[in-house]
Specification:
The protein is an alpha/beta fold. The chain is built from two helices and eight strands. It has one domain: 2,3-Dihydroxybiphenyl 1,2-Dioxygenase, domain 1 (Roll). The strands form two sheets. It has a four-stranded mixed beta sheet with strand order 1-4-3-2, with helices on one face. This is Probable ring-cleaving dioxygenase.
Length: about 130
């Protein structure tokens, strides 16, 4: 088997509208509608599919829970600019900038939380 990338991740959320607003307005993702009334957030070559807590689609994670995800997202935008952008949207940086190790080497990261408390790491490759 030769796995090459992640296509999508499913986030279970309390409020789909609040999640769409955060990920589109703050992180610049594109809202995508599919399968009738399903919503996702597209970025690069990936997307985040959204499931409403209590109304998840099958099959689903064994314990689909809002706030249980920790994602690292790579950005072309420099970290200093990301920090300024987050501040204009009232988003608190919980930690960073800090050096970390990503899948392909060193990264510089800041950490924020989405409306459900998911930990979102925004990173620049070094």
């Amino acid at each position: 088997m030769d796995i090459v990338s992640i296509d999508h991740v499913v986030l279970t959320v309390r409020d789909i509208r609040a999640s769409v607003a955060f990920y589109t307005r703050v992180l610049g993702m594109q809202e995508v509608m599919f399968g009738g009334d399903r919503r996702a957030l597209a970025f690069g070559h990936s997307k985040l599919n959204l499931h409403q807590a209590g109304r998840e689609l099958e099959p689903k994670a064994a314990r689909a829970t809002p706030g249980a995800v920790d994602l690292c997202l790579l950005a072309h935008t420099p970290i200093a600019e990301i920090i300024r952008h987050l501040a204009t949207h009232g988003v608190t940086v919980e930690e960073g900038p800090v050096e970390r190790t990503g899948a392909q080497g060193p990264i510089l990261s800041v950490y924020v939380r989405d409306p459900d408390g998911n930990l979102i790491e925004l990173s620049n490759p070094r």
